[in-house]
Amino acid sequence: MNIALVVIIVVAIILAIVGGLSSALNWLLWVALIVGVIALIAFLFRVIGGRNRV
């Protein structure tokens, strides 16, 4: 009975870690998309502004 309990606990811990990583990756994906959009807007402002750096 103890071995079954240990196996259940280990599986529960692994599922909790995988679920947490999935949530973290989902959050990081949204952050990366937002940062990418901000970088694109900044690039467009630089191109439209026509500033030439020499």
User: Could you describe the largest sheet, including whether it forms a barrel?
Assistant: none
Question: Radius of gyration over alpha carbons?
Answer: 23 Å
Q: What is the residue-averaged pLDDT?
A: 84
Termini gap = 75 Å
Return residue spans where pLDDT drops below 50 for at least 5 consecutive residues.
none
Give the % helix: over 70%
Number of strands: 0
Summed up, the helix count is 1
Coarse structural class: mainly alpha
Helix-strand pattern, N to C? H
Shape: rod-shaped
What portion of residues belong to β-strands?
under 5%
At a glance:
This is DUF2207 domain-containing protein. With 54 residues, the chain is mostly helical.
List keywords for this structure.
rod-shaped; 1 helix; 89% helix; mainly alpha; 54 residues
What does this structure look like?
The protein has 54 residues and is mostly helical. It has a domain at 22-54. 89% of the residues lie in helices and 0% in strands. It is rod-shaped. The termini are far apart.
Note the topology:
Layout: H1 2-49
